[in-house]
Amino acid sequence: MRTARHPELDEMTLVLVMAALSDPIRVGLVRVLADGEERGWGQLRAPVAKSTLSHHLRVLRDAGITRTRQEGTRCYVTLRREDLDERFPGLLDVVLTAAHADNIGNRVTLAD
Predict the structure, then answer these.
(1) Which domains does the chain have, with CATH numbers?
(2) pLDDT tens for residues 57-107?
């Protein structure tokens, strides 16, 4: 399997980050990952097909919002909170606060 490419800090653009955050499922994934824990892809539950979930995770990774780590055949994802806060100070907090207030992405959960 190939190693996922993650954009460097200076490659992260506001347009790509905002585009990635324009989908409720992706916002929900960010909300779940906002606790700072690394999660296996199999732990993430969303009302979409597995292939669609994989697409959403790739969009977040390509925008620089998440980091994916592969271990054997399993993939794990974390939120790049420090990088986002350095590149776009306060943006993630505003997005998470608004998403919580408006219940955006609340259908994305963790497996029991």
Answers:
(1) 16-101 (1.10.10.10)
(2) 999 999 999 999 999 989 999 999 999 999 999 999 999 999 999 999 999
> The pTM is what?
0.94
For the chain, give the number of residues: 112
Following DSSP, what letter does each residue of the chain receive, concatenated? -PPPP---GGG--HHHHHHHTTSHHHHHHHHHHTT---EEGGGEE-SS-HHHHHHHHHHHHHHTSEEEEEETTEEEEEE-HHHHHHHSTTHHHHHHHHHHHTTTTTT-EE--
N- to C-terminal Cα separation, the chain: 28
Strands 66-71, 109-110: pairing kind: unpaired
Contact yes or no for 43/111 (Cβ under 8 A): yes
- Cα torsion angle, 43, 48, 49, 54, sign: negative
The b-or-e profile of 39-63 (16+ CB within 10 A means b, else e) is beeeebebeeeeeebeebbebbbbb
